[in-house]
Amino acid sequence: MQALRMGGNSNVWQLRVDTWNSITELARQLSDATLAPDRRVERETELARLIDVVAPLESYWADPGPHQMAELQKFVIAGNYELVINAAEPIARSLVGDQRTPHRHRPTFEVLMVGDIGSEEEEALAEDLRQLRRPEDPFSYELVFVPSFADAIIAVAVNEHLQACVIRPGFRLRSDIELQQIDHVIPTLDLKPIEEMSTIQAAEALAQRITDVRPELDLYLVGHTAIETMTGGADHSFRRVFLRQDSFELHLSILRNVTDRYQTPFFTALREYSRQPTGVFHALPISRGKSIVNSPWASDMADFYGLNIFLAETSATSGGLDSLLDPVGPLKTAQDLAARAFGAQRTYFVTNGTSTANKIVAQSIITPGDIVLVDRNCHKSHHYALMLAGAETNYLDAYPLNQYSIYGAVPLETIKQQLLAYRRTGRLDQVKMLALTNCTFDGIVYDVERVMEECLAIKPDLVFLWDEAWFAFARFHPLYRRRTAMAVTRRLRQRYRDPDYQQRYGAQAAALSDADDQTWLHTRLLPDPNKVRLRVYATQSTHKTLTALRQGSMIHVFDELFGRRNEEAFREAYMTHTSTSPNYQILASMDVGRRQVELEGFELVSRQLEMATAFREAVQDHSTLSRHFRILTANDLIPAEYRRAEPEGSSNEDMTELQHAFEHDEFVLDPSRITLDIGLTGVDGDTFKHAYLMDRYGIQVNKTSRNTVLFMTNIGTTRSSVAYLLEVLIKLAQELDDEVTRMGPLDRRAHDSRVLALTDQPPPLPNFSAFHPRFRGDPDQNTPEGNLRDAFFLAYNEEVSEYLTGAEAQARLDEGRDVVSATFVIPYPPGFPILVPGQIISRDILEFMQALDTREIHGYLTGLGYRVFTEEALA
Ligand SMILES: Cc1ncc(COP(=O)(O)O)c(C=O)c1O
Q1: Are 730 and 624 in contact (CB under 8 A)?
Q2: How far is residue 751's CA from residue 628's CA, in Å, rounded to a whole number?
Q3: Per-residue pLDDT, 14
Q4: What atom in ligand 1 is closest to the CA of residue 543?
Q5: E strands along 775-828, which residues?
Q6: What is the per-residue pLDDT across 764-794, written as a single tens digit (0 to 9) for each?
Q7: Atom of ligand 1 nearest to the CA of 541
């Protein structure tokens, strides 16, 4: 069966929006009695065509639904255009509204009914379920009927309001609907294998397909036939199986299971606690606002925040609350629900960001002397964590993008080379963990599955720490999900239990038995299913991409040895780094954030992608903008050798191409991030960020490079914020045009040389040089790892270090002497250490630092320069 091509729902949304807007506009023109007859005929034909486009498409949504569509068609035939406007306009508006209707009282959703039952039975069933509604129900829902396997797959791929799906075996396989306009997003389904299945097996296959696309949906099976023949065991699971149509039970189950996702145990407990009368004879005078509300000097704080936040400020761990350090009540349940939502075995909330989450994971896994492979460009928390844990750190180099002064990601070949070197030198046992950032700040996404498989083939119990600080949202859209740590780990676990895999592995093992390292390096390796131990950790800054207060992060664990081996170490590490006074508002916000993504994550991420696509297209199509700015594509940010799937020159922006790239390429570019090349403006990234975007227009961006600015969309990005950004860029482009026009010859020359400096090749980005032999782990120096902790603490003794300016350091290098950093040196941007304690300072690094026009460099003192070890200390 071919893979389901997914990820195009946003295009469908755009098609709906455009079509309903055009229908409204045409009806408005037709309602004008003075319209010339030839124009009238033209408009009528176009209106009929648009209705033909949208009617079949709308069969996948309950709203407007078949009745309203039939009415609308009647109005069109009768030429009653006022009624057409009245019907079409609200549909168009509800689709585009930035403020989607807030469901303050009773959220509504849709339920997909898959079955070949005919319209009479559909109507009867819908009526049955309608009769069961009660005013006290927590939610209401509408039904969407589809008769076939193919329609069901399309519906779950495009209808973001679905929360549940009821499958009746015996459905048809193919769709009667022709949707030429969205051909490119329709699943490519090979239905042949399903034709040969029993009806129950086909229902199971459908359930599996739906789970692949939307794992959060509740699935029900309503069977008339022998349900005992179900094979089970797959990754999908029916919430409930009904032997016959029992509308009452079905109705209750649908509501109960959505309620299950809707629950927020900790947020609810905190709200309830805040309503209880309490007297505080303990810490936290601000709780209940006591220390501020009557204070003439501090009451404005209560005015600003409102009282609720202080009513919810407490240090209590009882009275319905719970302790983060030993959760047994609502916090435990909230974490368990998060584990379910993110596909983990366990999830832990962290209230000091992923900076702390990374330290917890590292400490729980590493004992001093263990070798850790890590991307040199990873967030500084990893470097500090490895230093604290006493790891032997092997820094991996990412591929550089010198033109933009951006680092990419670490090629798999680099990682395999290192692992094979350890195997060759008999030190593979010492290798404990691989830590990589997925996706990188700039949006480079790894092929997580391939990295894990090939590494596990060399070292079957390697632990993976995937820093998904920027990737929590990825779980909730099928395009991204396949490249997240937890989804891949589940897939691998299933794969290694499959007898077919065992056979494939056996064949490869035989073929590789005498092979040399070069052959291993260039073979797509398969791990030994009998030896492999999946030990995977993902850390996510929930607050960066989903709903959570700042510092709200999660650690997701999928570790087959966790209970047996690592749980205690993990608990100790968690205790080491977690405050005994964790912030309850952060914890409650993560609970709500989890609820939100379980119920509308798919919709939110789909919209986010839509916003990013719209922005990208608008910049490319605008003549003034495209004269000054260029959006970097995968072709710019990922070298061709890592993009086997994509023909050179294509943009990687089209959704189907993206889908293909996400399935096959070593690296892909996260389409929700937009890197703008601003080199042609003659303004550097840092100035553009501060002086142009922030100071003039209040637009906040985080990351810039010499000649680029990164714009990130997120689930809160609205059409109006995108429109504002475009407006600002257009204004800036026009101002730049005006400035250039007004320039005299001297200014013009200066401008041109600034442009040249920003568009010319800068000094190459330096690789990690090397640890000084004094700190190297391998006495024979076959492998490059070094001990950060030794160097870091050696530098506590002031006598062993001195300061050298860049020129002085250069002079020492010219004399053939080693210069070794005693500290971390971290320029912002790029925000990762260009030097770590114990690292040899190379010419490349000095040159790079000299060319760096960054205002913030931690660990480098202007005037004094680099703190380096004295030669005596290194002797
Ligand atoms: C890759 C990466 N990991 C970890 C962190 C730290 O996350 P937090 O800000 O949640 O502490 C960041 C912060 O920018 C990051 O970029």
Answers
A1: yes
A2: 13
A3: 79
A4: 10
A5: 786-787, 801-804, 826-828
A6: 888 899 999 999 988 888 999 999 999 999 9
A7: 10
Rounded distance between C-alpha atoms, residue 596 and residue 589, angstroms? 10
What is residue 475's DSSP assignment?
G
The encoded tokens of residue 460 equal 């079957």
pTM beyond cutoff 0.85? yes
355 Cβ below 6 A of ligand 1:
yes
Q: CA quadruple 571, 573, 574, 580: dihedral positive or negative?
A: positive
CA of 394 to the centre of ligand 1 (A): 21
| pLDDT tops 70 at residue 417 | yes
Q: Provide the residue count of the chain.
A: 875
Q: Give mean pLDDT, residues 843-851.
A: 89
Is 540 a pocket residue for ligand 1 (Cβ < 6 Å)?
no
539 lines ligand 1 (CB under 6 A): no
Integer Cα distance of 643 and 665 in angstroms: 5
Do the beta carbons of residue 843 and residue 419 sit within 8 Å?
Answer: no
The confidence score (pLDDT) of residue 279 equals: 75
Spatial contact of 534 and 493, defined as CB atoms under 8 Å apart: yes
CB neighbour list of residue 375: distance below 8 Å, 6 or more residues apart:
395, 396, 398, 409, 410, 435, 436, 437
**176-180 long-range contacts, CB within 8 A, separation 24+:** 176/147, 176/148, 177/56, 177/59, 177/151, 178/56, 179/56, 179/57, 179/154
441 lines ligand 1 (CB under 6 A): yes
Ligand 1 centroid – CA 443 distance (Å) = 14
Which residue's structure tokens are 């992608």? 609
- Does ligand 1 lie within 6 Å of residue 377's CB atom? no
> Residue 391, by phi and psi: left (phi above 0), alpha (psi -120 to 50) or beta?
beta
What's the gap in Å between 469 CA and the centre of ligand 1? 5
Verify whether ligand 1 is closer than 6 Å to residue 553 (CB atom): yes
Task: Confirm or reject: Cβ of 681 under 6 Å from ligand 1.
Answer: no
Task: For ligand 1, say whether the CB of 379 is within 6 Å of any of its atoms.
Answer: yes
- Closest residue by CA, ligand 1 atom 7: 354
Q: Evaluate: CB of 403 within 6 angstroms of ligand 1.
A: no
Q: What whole-number distance in Å separates Cα of residue 364 and Cα of residue 580?
A: 19
